[in-house]
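Reagents: none. Just compute today. Putative pre-16S rRNA nuclease.
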Amino acid sequence: MRILGLDVGSHTVGVAVSDEMGWTAQGIETVRRKPHQPDEVFERIGDFIKQYDVKEIVVGLPKNMNGSIGPSGEACQEFARQAEARYGVPVVLWDERLTTMAAQKMLISADVSRKKRKQVIDKMAAVLILQGYLDSRQLKK
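Predicted 3D structure written out:
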């Protein structure tokens, strides 16, 4: 069963997918969000759901360091609600605090140029979100 991981931002959505066994996450793409075409990002995600036969979606939930949810978190909750309604696939919200920062540090330590980092940071954050979720599921078994 494959699971899709999403790092939802105001301008882009990073996308990752699990392997069939649900052990590892791989980055797929960073999808640009266009304010004048809000359905386009959902259409692209729908393509991934079909292509990979996705049975569950994990959406990163940005929380404040004190655990509260601000405007970005509320926007991600709304995105998750819309995704669940559109695709009929269960959507899980996953605490993503510091994942973008961790992705940035990983890319810097790998000596990835600033320009290239900007192109892949959201996809890498989606990988970290999904991998954290997958790891938590393995611990429960």
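The chain has four helices and five strands.
Action item: order primers for follow-up constructs.
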